[in-house]
Amino acid sequence: MLGYLGTPNGLTGTEFNLEDPAVPTSTRVPVSNAAQYVGDLDVDPSHEVTHVNVQLFGVDPVPPTGGPHNIGFVLDYGRQPPKPVAPVARNIMKCFDPAKLPVLTTLAREFAVCDRWHSSVPGQTWPNRFFLHCATSGGFVDNTPRHYGMRTIYENLTGAGLTWTIYFHDFPQSLALANLTNSAFKSNFKFFPEFFNDLKNGSLPNYTFLEPRYFNFLGWKANDQHPPHDVQLGEHLIADVYTQLRASALWEKSLFVVLYDEHGGIYDHVFPPDHVANPDGKVSTTPPFDFTRLGLRVPAVIVSPYVERGTVDSTTVYDHTSLLASVRDLFGLKTSLTKRDAQAKTFLGLLKLDKPPRPLANTPDDAALNRPPHPEATEFHQVAGAATMTGDKVSAQLEDGEDSDEELSEFQQSLVELAQTLDVPDDSARMRVLRLARRIDDEHDAAVLVREVATRFVESE
Asked: Judging by beta carbons within 10 Å of its beta carbon (0-12, 13-18, 19+), is residue 110 exposed, middle or buried?
């Protein structure tokens, strides 16, 4: 996403992978800036720990001597079922030209980019999201619904008398955390249009976490930038949040962090640090992982009127617990959650709080955002449309046959399983059994199920 931005740890353009690292004469696949919004990664790249080992070292398990690094991305993608043919497997080396991501690129150049921000686990979405919420994944490295009883940053905020809200589009993955399903917290979850209402009214909580849309549902397209979804729509989501925040009365009190949970199996040339603190003494046995190695880099952009234009932090190693450490210090919370966030670097040094905030508009450093020209974005992904899923709109979309019959990605399937088993307040045992028995055949059916469950959770008595 930001490899060609020109940062010190960015790409030179000479990086490559061999199609088979074990065969020096195999085809050399160079990195390029030819990534497309859709179509390159119709086969979802894997990023399970065992696959990341192959991406980094060319083999699994990790060789005792380490060996060459970041050499197996093409090899691993070519093995992903249904196995992509060689030309398709080479797409894993494609990166974006900055001009194709005008929103993310502009914010990175206008504010601050953390050039060494790594995911907390060299693995999948769920464990990395848990590190964002809890500074641990409880010793698990997969996307499997189970009882996750770790303490969260939200409980620390509540204990300090501070407010928080998780705004979501179709279903909050954060409900995988058992403590957050407590009926006392259901008012802390709101559908995404409420974010803009609260922002306009000046009633945002102290801490806000935003979850994108994970499913295509009729005309409401997924904006999570997860393959094979259209990357443009995530650009529109970021732009919506930034432009409305910039125009609000809360701008001069705000800090907006744009962050990705993991690398998605896509190529990067920087090797992750392998000497970090195990958060709580727990380890994974299947597959083996001791939580002392970070994952690959992810885009991380820090947006605030207190950030100097063009800031690039290319030396500080961050991971997702840096967000929690920064929240802890910013709000004066008394304790950390685990050893990981206790030792994590904060990004508060990038804020110049001893200086007046940057002017709002009509100055040389004012960030005017151009958006990718997406034909469906105006109605469903700009604030003017509010992405409101009214009954009339849903009926009209159904009549036009605008539903998605795509198969589910592994991540989407994990959300369906979570929704089927979620203990919703006031939900009967019979309703939970019916949810479990419900047949989910495609993305449309999945989108209907997760939204129904999310609505029942938010609106339960």
From this structure: buried
Residue 386 has pLDDT above 80, yes or no: no
Distances (CA, A) of 106 to 101, 179, 224, 310: 8, 38, 19, 10
Q: Is the pLDDT of residue 378 over 90?
A: no
437/373 Cα distance (integer angstroms) = 41
Question: What are phi and psi for residue 208, nearest 5 degrees?
Answer: -125, 135
pTM tops 0.85: yes
- CA–CA distance, 153 with 163 (Å, rounded to integer): 11
User: Which tokens go with 452?
Assistant: 């129904």
Confidence check: pLDDT of 388 > 90: no
Report how far residue 342's alpha carbon sits from residue 437's, in angstroms, rounded to the nearest whole number. 43
Q: What is the mean pLDDT of the chain?
A: 90
pLDDT at 368: 76
What CA–CA distances, in Å, run from 460 to 92, 174, 424? 44, 18, 8
Which residues make Cβ contacts (< 8 Å) with residue 115, sequence separation at least 6?
Answer: 7, 8, 9, 10, 297, 312, 313, 314
| Residue 292 CB contacts under 8 Å (≥ 6 apart), including other chains | 274, 275, 276, 277, 278
> Minimum mean pLDDT among 39-48, 109-118, 157-166, 213-222: which range?
213-222
The domains located in the chain, with CATH, are: 16-93 (no CATH), 98-350 (3.40.720.10), 384-459 (no CATH)
Can you give the pLDDT at residue 425?
72
Please give the span between the terminal C-alpha atoms of the chain, in angstroms, as a whole number. 43
DSSP secondary structure letters along 63-120: -TT--S-S--HHHHHHHSSSPPPHHHHGGGGB-B-GGG-HHHHHHHHHSEEETTBB-S
pLDDT at 1: 96
Distance, CA of 74 to CA of 70 (rounded, Å): 10
Structure tokens at 178: 């058992």
